[in-house]
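Chapter review. Work through the record for Light-independent protochlorophyllide reductase subunit N before attempting the end-of-chapter questions.
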Amino acid sequence: MPPPPATGCRSAPVLKERGQHEVFCGLTGIVWLHRKMQDAFFLVVGSRTCAHLLQSAAGVMIFAEPRFGTAILEEQDLAGLADAQEELDREVARLLARRPDIRQLFLVGSCPSEVIKLDLAKAAQRLSARHAPHVRVLNYSGSGIETTFTQGEDACLAAMVPQLPEKSARELLLVGALPDVVEDQALRLLSDLGIGPVRCLPARRAEDMPLVGPDTVFALTQPFLGDTHAALERRGARHIPAPFPFGEEGTTEWLAALAREFDVPAGRFEQVTAAPRARARRAVAAAAETLAGRSVFFFPDSQLEIPLARFLTRECGMEAIEIGTPYLHKALMGPDLDLIAPGPNLSEGQDVDRQLDRLRAARPDLTVCGLGLANPLEAEGLATKWAIELVFTPVHLYEQVGDLAQLFARPLRRRDLLKLEAAE
Ligand code: SF4
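C-alpha cells for Light-independent protochlorophyllide reductase subunit N:
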C-alpha cells in the first residue's frame, strides 16, 4: 500500500453540475432495509409504478413473508375525490390485524403522494397513537425527484432518530444497515478490541433499538447517511470521522479511529487486526492483477463513489479519471478524500450529457454507473459495473475485501476474454 499522499483531494476543486439525473429512486432502499429489520413493514403510499419498481427490484429476493407492500393511490385519490387519509387508515388497520408480528410500520412517501400533498407525517402520528404501544408508525419519503437510490435508507434512519429514547451513557453506535453477517464481523472485531457497549442503527428488532444522548459516539458504516448524521448530532451524539470500512486500508483506518476514541492500546490493535489484514491483502492481490494500471470513471449514483475510488486507486493500483458523486458531504467524505492523490476530476451532481461527453473523450477501462447507462455504454465497447450491485453485495470490512475487488475485476476480465476471442 502506498503511503498517504502529502496532500489529498479534500480541497481539490469540485465541478458542480445541476442537470438531468439518471438514477433510481429512494424506494429501492426498502429492498435491503426490509431484510435488516425483521419486525418492520414498509408501506409505500404510491402508484402502480412504485409497486412495479419494488417488485422488480426485490422480486427475486423474497424468500420469506414480504415485509413491504404498496397502498395504491387510485385515480380518484390523485384527483382529490377520495379521502386518501381515511383510505390509508383502513389499509393500515387491515394490515396490522393480519400481521401481528409487525412492530414498526414505515409509511413511505412517493412522487404521487407528494404530488397530492398527502401529509404522511400527520398520518404517522395519528396511526402511532392508535396502534401504540404494540406498533410504532413512522414516515419518510422515498420519492424519486432529485434523489438517489441510497437516500431512502438515509431518510428512513433519520426518521427513526428523534424517536430513540434518551440515555446518557457512553456507548458506540454503528449507523447503517449492514448485512447481518457483516454486522456480526464488525461487532466481533470491536469486542476483541475491548470497545463497547456497541449498538446498531437500525437494530434487527424494535426492542433492540439504541438509546441516544450526549455521551453517544457514532460511526457511520455507509457514506450516504448525511441526514442521519445531522439528526444524531441534533440529539447531542458525536460523530467519529474516519475513512469508510471498504478495503483493507479503509477498514483498518475506520477501526483505528474507533480504537483511538476508546483508548485501545496499540499492541492490542495490532494483535486483533494483523491476521484479517493479511488475509484481506492476499485477497486483493489476486484481483489487483487484473485491475492494476487500468482506469476507472465513476458516474454519480450510489454515493459510495469516493471511498471506492480511494480503495481502487490505493489498494488495487487503478487510476481514477473522474469521481462523480450525487452529493459531496465534506464532513463525511473528508477522511477518504485525504487519502486520494490529486489528479481525478471530482464532480458533484449530474448533467448526464456533459458527463457522457467527458467519458467518451477519456474512454476509461471501466465505468461505474447506473443500470440505465450501462447497456448503451457496453454497446459502445466500454466495460461497465452497475453501481447498485455494490449496495446489494456484502462489501464492507476485511473478509469481504476480495469480493469487493472481484466485483470490479470481473467486467474487465470478461472484456479481455471477448477481445481475445475476437482476435483469434
Ligand atoms: S417514487 Fe416516484 S420515481 Fe419512485 S417508483 Fe414511485 S413514481 Fe417512480
